[in-house]
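QA checklist item 7 of 12: single-chain prediction sanity check.
[x] sequence parsed
[x] length recorded as 237
[x] structure emitted
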Amino acid sequence: MPKRYWLIIVIYIAAQVFPAIGRPIGEDYLGLSDVDAMVYSTIFGMALGTVIILKMLAPDMERSEIRDRPNYGYMFKWAFYGFFLAFLAQYIAGLININVFNVEQSSENTGLIMDIIEANVWFIILPILFAPLLEEIIFRKIIFGQLYKRMNFLLAAILSSVVFSILHFDFAFILTYVAMGIVFAYLYVKTKRILVPILVHMAMNTAVVLLQLSVDIDELERQLEEYQNAAMILFGG
């Protein structure tokens, strides 16, 4: 793996832990509340990390332009298809979690993000912009991309997706993260453009955030459970 890829991973990790430094500064010197200091330092760290990482990836993008100028219509078409493919993968993983592994609670990771957004709306920038962009660069372009050079697609996609899911610390929903990761890897290989899984990831996160903000999740989960029970009865489950 190129040395600059290792450096990109280090910068990504540094951006993740930057609030450990920025949070106390925000509280002690800027007079921010604990939540606001965490939110603004997180956004600053991720924004700075994104700028540096994109700058470091410039050679990759230049080579891509020379080799095969992107067809934006093709990319956006697959981003559109990919959104529904990712939604289907997430739905199937959710059914398996409920009916096979008896995982019925909501995602702790999603719940924590929504709690922070409700406390400070600016945190919404993280799940809909910075997280999808950086995660696709790290887990699909770099980790999956390097594994794919040494093994078949499925194994490379599963391994990179497992790492992706573990680092979310939401172990009850590891199957959901793996399913999504495999779809994102497929989109990357299919289109040869990391922008496509980035756009799909952004769209999925945006849809989840907007749904969480606008819908009574407990009532929605109750209705979904009723629909699933009705379907199981209808098809002899």
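[x] summary fact logged: The CA atoms of residues 4 and 57 lie 9 Å apart.
[ ] second reviewer sign-off
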